[in-house]
Amino acid sequence: MCNFMGYRVTIDQFIRLKQLEKELGTLAAMDALVSGFSYGDWQVVTANGANDIEIRKMHWEFIPWWIKDEAQLRETRKQGIPWLNATSEKLLDSKMFREAALERRCLVIASWFYEWRHFKPVGAKKENAYPYLISLPGHEYFYMAGIWQPWVDKSTGETIDTFAIVTTKANSLMEKVHNIKKRMPTILTEDLAHEWILGNIDEQRIKEIAGFQYPAEGMAAQTIQKNFKTVPNPVEPYHFAELPPLV
């Protein structure tokens, strides 16, 4: 869930969070498409003291403390256990995520994310997966709730900051798109984003914000080419004649 996302670079090289504004600078060159399974870096926003924010690059994969080194991490990935997302309902019950949810919350910047809808066309032998680009019309970018923690490779001593995107139950639009697991990233309003990283909030409020469902009427879903991961323009709309519209 939410393993692919992208960002639209414009002449506006700043991000804003309520009254706070930060220049992206060298961080502005974000990609139209990034896969979490490439285990690379992405731009996140963290608190910088009680009343300020900073933009940092972090490794997209929340690596737990018990992973000793890169070799063990690669072996764990082969078992199909990625830590790209953190389920909101279990955030504070998880030994792996609890401390980060309480002490190290962040915002993940994106302009869109990608998700798949499963559908079996008439006459087809099996269901097909159709990719969608999900965006917020009128927003150059938005914030997703995240959590982060530092991880130390015990074989090299290197420390890297790692993060996961918090996910919640799908709203009415995302139930139709992500129609198997019915999940979506926890996209936050500006007020909630500010509160998530700068507010002095208790466990109940953390649960409430982590489980927030962005209103379906504020989102848009557009089909794109099935090979969007390899084409020059991964956000270009594409129509599938056999696929009924979202209703």
Structure description:
With 247 residues, the protein is an alpha+beta fold. The chain is built from five helices and 15 strands. The longest helix has 9 residues, at 70-78.
Task: State the helical fraction.
Answer: 10-25%
Estimate the global geometry from the Cα principal axes. globular
Number of helices: 5
- Whole-Å distance between the termini? 22 Å
The biggest sheet amounts to: 5 strands, antiparallel
Give the ordered list of helices and strands: EEEEEEHEHEEEEEHEEHHE
**Main structural class:** alpha+beta
Determine the strand fraction and express it as a percent band. 25-35%
- The radius of gyration over CA amounts to 18 Å
CATH-defined architecture of the domain at 4-112 and 139-167 and 184-216 = Alpha-Beta Complex
CATH topology of the domain at 4-112 and 139-167 and 184-216: hypothetical protein yedk fold
CATH class term of the domain at 4-112 and 139-167 and 184-216: Alpha Beta
Spatial order of strands in the largest sheet:
4-1-9-10-15
What would CATH call the homologous superfamily of the domain at 4-112 and 139-167 and 184-216?
A: SOS response associated peptidase-like
Average pLDDT: 91
Q: How would you classify the quaternary structure? A: single chain
* Total strands: 15
Low-confidence stretches: none
